[in-house]
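Students often ask why we bother encoding 3D structure as a string. The short answer is that it lets us treat folding as translation between two languages. Here is a chain of 110 residues written in the first language.
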Amino acid sequence: MDSKSQEVFKNKLLKEQKKLEVDLKKMNKINDYGSSEEANVYQFEEREERLGFGNKIKNSLLEIEHSLKKIEDDKYGLCENCGEKIELGRLKIFPTATYCATCATKKNSH
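And here it is in the second language, the structure alphabet:
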């Protein structure tokens, strides 16, 4: 992948990283429990839901960091399984893709 394309993907990844970091900070703000038992149950359920979303955000951030490291190492856009180029269309939709479409399909079918 040429350096201009890598720069485009790097900027896209950095933008998404900043957005996710802001989202994670917002999710980490925990509201006080309510004054009634019903409110407490609602707050507990909301907190559990936030923790689940928080974990998804953290995983996404790790994927972005991995992709940024691959850009640094000039290995971005190469399948981690077969070493072939990941399809440009796939990277445009899923910039943290680590497998080409063929290897991803094989991996998900097992």
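Translate back mentally: The two ends are 30 Å apart (CA to CA). Keep this in mind for the problem set.
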